UniProtKB/TrEMBL annotation, chains A, B:
PANTHER family: ALPHA-L-RHAMNOSIDASE SIX-HAIRPIN GLYCOSIDASE DOMAIN-CONTAINING PROTEIN, C, PUTATIVE (AFU_ORTHOLOGUE AFUA_3G02880)-RELATED. The lineage of its organism: Bacteria, Pseudomonadati, Bacteroidota, Cytophagia, Cytophagales. Residues 1-20 form the signal peptide. Gene3D superfamilies: 1.50.10.10, Galactose-binding domain-like, Maltose phosphorylase, domain 3. Residues 291-623 form the Alpha-L-rhamnosidase six-hairpin glycosidase domain. This is Alpha-rhamnosidase. One of its GO terms (biological process) is carbohydrate metabolic process.
Amino acid sequence: MKKALSILFLLLSFISSGFAQNQATWIWYPGDFEIWLGNNMQNRRTERTTFLPPFWKLDSHYNLIDFHKDFDLTQAEDVALFVEGKYNVKVDGKAFPGYPKRITVPAGKHKVSLKVFCQDRVPAIYVRGKNVVSDDTWLVTFEDKEWIDETGKASDQSGTTWLKAGSWNFNDPQLPPSKFRLNTKALSAVKTDKQKGSVFLDFGKETFGFIKLHGLSGKGNINIYYGESPEEARATATCETTDFLQIDQTQKRDSTMKLTKAFRYVNVQFDGSVVMDSVSMLYEFLPVADRGSFRCNDEQINRIYDVATYTLHLNTREFFIDGIKRDRWIWSGDAAQSYLMNYYLLFDSPSVTRTMLALRGKEPVTSHINTIMDYTLYWFISIYDYYQYTGDKAFIQQFYPRMQSLMDYCLDRRNKNGLLEGLAGDWVFIDWADGLSKKGEVSFEQLLFARSLETMALCANIVNDTPNATKYNQLAADVKTKLFSTYWSDSKHALVHSRVDGVTTDNVTRYANMFAIFFNYLDDAKKQAVKQYVLLNPNVPKITTPYMRFYELEALCALGEQSYVTKEMKDYWGGMLNLGATSFWEEYNPTKTGAEHYAMYGRPFGKSLCHAWGASPIYLLGKYYLGVKPTAPAYATYLIEPQLGGLQWIDGKVPTPDGDVSVYCSTKEIKVTGAAGTGTLRFKSKTKPVCKQGEVRPVSNGTYELTVEKGKSYVVSYKL
Amino acid sequence: MKKALSILFLLLSFISSGFAQNQATWIWYPGDFEIWLGNNMQNRRTERTTFLPPFWKLDSHYNLIDFHKDFDLTQAEDVALFVEGKYNVKVDGKAFPGYPKRITVPAGKHKVSLKVFCQDRVPAIYVRGKNVVSDDTWLVTFEDKEWIDETGKASDQSGTTWLKAGSWNFNDPQLPPSKFRLNTKALSAVKTDKQKGSVFLDFGKETFGFIKLHGLSGKGNINIYYGESPEEARATATCETTDFLQIDQTQKRDSTMKLTKAFRYVNVQFDGSVVMDSVSMLYEFLPVADRGSFRCNDEQINRIYDVATYTLHLNTREFFIDGIKRDRWIWSGDAAQSYLMNYYLLFDSPSVTRTMLALRGKEPVTSHINTIMDYTLYWFISIYDYYQYTGDKAFIQQFYPRMQSLMDYCLDRRNKNGLLEGLAGDWVFIDWADGLSKKGEVSFEQLLFARSLETMALCANIVNDTPNATKYNQLAADVKTKLFSTYWSDSKHALVHSRVDGVTTDNVTRYANMFAIFFNYLDDAKKQAVKQYVLLNPNVPKITTPYMRFYELEALCALGEQSYVTKEMKDYWGGMLNLGATSFWEEYNPTKTGAEHYAMYGRPFGKSLCHAWGASPIYLLGKYYLGVKPTAPAYATYLIEPQLGGLQWIDGKVPTPDGDVSVYCSTKEIKVTGAAGTGTLRFKSKTKPVCKQGEVRPVSNGTYELTVEKGKSYVVSYKL
């Protein structure tokens, strides 16, 4: 028995040492792949056949990078090298000749370093030995300052800044970062109408990918018109996206379009002797699984949730993008909402950081992100959220300097009152809304500015930059004080919209007021005032974009108005479903009819019918119905406050960095399973609740709490 | 007669309108081609077969550029488009479909714009109509901020910064900037020693280019060892550059090496069944003609001048580089001297600005240029010189912001005394000299800093930035005051070398003292003191690099010590010639013997035997013997002060932006021809000089002056 055990032990050691080979992965200068990929994606936009690149500065990756790591090896090992770019490789500062594909690193303590130049792609390496493997523990710099004097003595490099390498999931040496492609899958149309010289296809729902023409032959033109609506696909002169081909081939061949398109309907027209067997598509997607879920007794709400998750998936690609048809650019304000939805559906942090880094770009800051003042501020606020949900300190440590320089840009653009006001070249966006004033000092911008400064203070503390933490906290407090002294109107019971040329306007809009609620900037009296005089006041201009509906409904949820929100959700998102939507739109105005719905930007089909900001029910249902939200970074502590919002039962999951929180709630029973750290279930009950798995504590006013431990399930009987 | 005249007039109009077609040229964002080309060139360095890239940050071109120009056409015209990158083209903001190669621009006032994305090369365009042609009057930006609101209304772009396009001489649409190559010309060896398995070639003098193996066939290895000396070419294990090939071919083929090398001697070794007919080279060069010249009665000086001009030509390539064998990097301190020599030989401003822009790179500044403190300061001083010689205000207007940000970097690195002191990551270079202290506050660096601040004040005035002109002038004055209060020693009659930890050292070196002379920072008493106690004092450590010999001899010339300099030139540069030099060296120490001369950086052949800084006689002979120098930008006014320096006669030309100044001077006669603006010939004579072509004015102490007008020649009889 003893012998058998030791053999088993040996066997296990062998296996374990086999597995001890660390996973090598492609690495690069952090943020650089993201910038490079962002450039590639954003420069794929076309309007019909015209190239339409972004109107802001695009940065480049650093083209010359030094990678190194110190190793202590018990025995010499062979190491394979894969490199994107022109490179050298050194052990302890001594270079190997040429461009070796394999080196031997001797036993003992050794520094392995590679230096790589690459202009068209991101300098990247994949190093695979047994212990000598490339991963995000390697250090990288874009200026090693390693000079030698006339005697051959090397410099001390004390002025060199090293960061940890960036990586993602490129674990195959044959698939370097530059070869990254999204996944594809063949799909067929659900309905095909073939006529002489044309095929009209309906793929059954909004989709995205490459159209494929099968068995194509003959001589002539093939014009493909794409539509999110049948009207658009038929409007050959004004549809937003097209493909025009000419062929002259006798042999039948399949032909796949080069650029992806967004569509439900495809109108293929051809002339001459062109014939084809059939038309299908390659659906293109980022393979990322749902972790969150939501179901309830109301089938319309369930359908809204499903269409929202599909909408989010379609817009979760190389990056979180705004809409799949037109822009395919990365917009910070749009992405800020995708991040929040992501925390309740995918919990895919790489998609968040990829997007944040592509948006931030490089030094120097020469304009607001996307040129939009509010979009810069959302970038900061998104970091606040990201840290709260994921607890990822490493991201903040690596990119704190980029946060600082972006904040310096904002601080440099304050006016004499210390407030932000659009200067030449600044786009003050707020929302797409007719007649919305962007002039002067807009209260909404100051509110986002205050929260951004609070984010900077938080991050300064994380990197132990105490003097700046104090500075940012003070600046945040100043802006908050000015926000209320400047804009709060007792007679309007609200923050007014703006101050222009020193005169505070009378105009009340929803924007600053609703954000002030969920930023928790209002005392209870002001909250109730805002609810009554702004949020529930039909005379305050209505919001027509799902973008701002997101925040409006969040504010109402934060005030406990879930029942009202349920109705609004059914009206607004349900309204789109009633019009046949299979994904949610950039803008929805119920007073419009027919193809009017598709117009925007002065173009008949300018509107995107699949816009990420339309997917907010994912967030609202997860955070304010299932009621799960972190109260400390990475869900070390969190709340579960289920709210039925007029529904009979709700059931779902919310992902955390360590497992999913499950919640079921009806008017009589709550069932929860904990994840991550320590949860607190909080609920109201008219009777004393009963729970066998834990102790329910009365708090006040018929409110009760139950501590929820990781991995444990609890069933509570109560009475709503 | 009248009729004939009007026909002639018509004919001339026709010809002139035919010629009125403007020259189109490739254009780009200013400075970007220079950065891109600099990256390419500097990343071609290898040490034997190992890739050896720079150790400082390399920047990238902007990858997304908007180009535009407004035209007013009397009739519509066809315009051909050539573009490097993915692009769109618009007339008055309306885009053409796809990627057109020809467009028609209608008659009337129209804005033509192109937007181009390119990551691996510099976005560039070549537009060729009759009037619609691309040239450096087009405006460019890397962020057009041209957004539209939800109604389709375009933004006002008031925050967009437009610069004038960059260009060089790419006038052929088929040869875009990315295809730029230097010229080549076939050359043969002057001596070939063919043995079994080897060929040893001597090309007669230092040269540069691609080795070509003719009629190569067989199977085996070919190892090529390059040498600036025969010793190096024979030292197969330690020569600095090599090429290793393997072939297996039965057909005879010519094979040209991929990378250029510097050499005089080439040692080709081969094994197996390898055979070849012969070995030759393709000499690679920038085609730029000599405009300056110098001849005198001393044949050794003439030979020095010729070898100096050859040395400068070899190092004047894509950029002014330091040396052709080893680095092939761009070094600001080395280039600063090449610029000065250039003004007396080539007067090729594009080579100056190309080099300055590649050195400066992009924002943000993260280290000194080449990491070297003095090299940053030389960059500023070079602008001072460039403006003085060329009067090119446009360059300063375009790049003043980059000058400001680099100066901000310096100002941010001042210590508590307001002086520059090496911080972590700063290389304080000064010179290659044994035991030279770089510690603490070095006087030499403060001196360069003061001159740099003066340059900034000059440039601030040129761009009408009056507040900063005042600021920079004040800062310059402060540093100058501190320079003398801190370092001037009455007992040493000199500026001492440094202050370390608050204690001024006793050490006197030549550096700050010699620069103080030709910067004109010393009063006459101090000048004479420095001459006696430093420059002509053998106890002050000698300078052994041609780099600092340049400035040492310039200081002596500025003090009128040309006769001494003539002797030094013959000793030092003549010393190299006596050792067989065919180009001038990185360092020359007459106390060394044999192959000792070739060692540096701890390597037996580490020294470069063709270093640009060795070519300074071009500058000294032009500026201080022919005595021609501008006293106002672009030679609007200038001096001609010929000095024989012990020679019997001198004869030569000095180029200006508008023609060459000719000077002949013997002990009895001076002959000059003016160029550019207004010259003043100044000379001493023991008798009253006679000139038929102009009026000689006595000035003082036997000094006379004559006004020299553009294009006019003057002969003066005088007595030295």
